[in-house]
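Quick one, tokens below. Sequence please?
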């Protein structure tokens, strides 16, 4: 009898877990269905844990889509495929002004001044995360499905933390909805690490980005 009770309890637990998983999947699909602007990202994007996206618009999504296409073309460009720089699109309503252009092997990064966050100091937006292309298209094609990646955050005087940990690569370019805590007047840096195709390492400028918030 005890064994039967245990089996019954396990079956009930399994049913609850399956129901919760089905609900989460349904909510995710509903999010895409209810927002035509992001419908094109149904297979290449990691949304926030609750299934939501950064505030967006048709114009913003058009810019993101164009950038994804350009980055993928760079990875798949014969006979000399390359590795694109990571890119960031802040959510609607945030002012993002580029102050420095990333240049390979110079130490120059994509650096941005940020305004319009309000008292939270949290920058929300979409990161575009490419696989490496410079070792050839076969590797890039494999890594787009097998890689995981981690996003690290560092600010002066603070310990580096993982704000995205071991997320699964979804395509040649994975879109990641992200929240980055900023500090008024101080630069905050993010670093992009991949399991198969490497981290900042020899491509520091292409895998690192810095934001400075004005406190407003």
């Amino acid at each position: 009898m005890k064994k039967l009770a245990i089996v019954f309890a396990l079956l009930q637990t399994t049913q609850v877990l399956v129901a919760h998983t089905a609900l989460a999947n349904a909510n995710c699909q509903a999010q895409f269905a209810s927002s035509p602007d992001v419908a094109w990202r149904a297979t290449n994007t990691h949304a926030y844990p609750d299934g939501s996206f950064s505030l967006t618009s048709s114009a913003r999504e058009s810019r993101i889509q164009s950038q994804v296409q350009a980055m993928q073309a760079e990875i798949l460009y014969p006979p000399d495929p390359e590795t694109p720089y990571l890119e960031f699109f802040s959510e609607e309503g945030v002012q993002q002004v580029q102050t420095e252009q990333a240049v390979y092997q110079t130490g120059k990064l994509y650096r941005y001044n940020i305004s319009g966050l309000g008292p939270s100091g949290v920058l929300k937006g979409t990161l575009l995360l490419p696989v490496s292309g410079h070792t050839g298209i076969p590797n890039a094609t494999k890594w787009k499905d097998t890689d995981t990646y981690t996003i690290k955050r560092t600010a002066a005087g603070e310990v580096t933390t993982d704000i995205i940990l071991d997320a699964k690569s979804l395509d040649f370019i994975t879109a990641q909805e992200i929240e980055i805590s900023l500090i008024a007047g101080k630069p905050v840096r993010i670093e992009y690490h991949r399991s198969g195709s490497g981290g900042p390492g020899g491509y520091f400028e292409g895998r690192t980005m810095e934001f400075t918030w004005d406190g407003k």
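Residues 2-34 form one domain. The chain has two domains: 2-34, 46-213.
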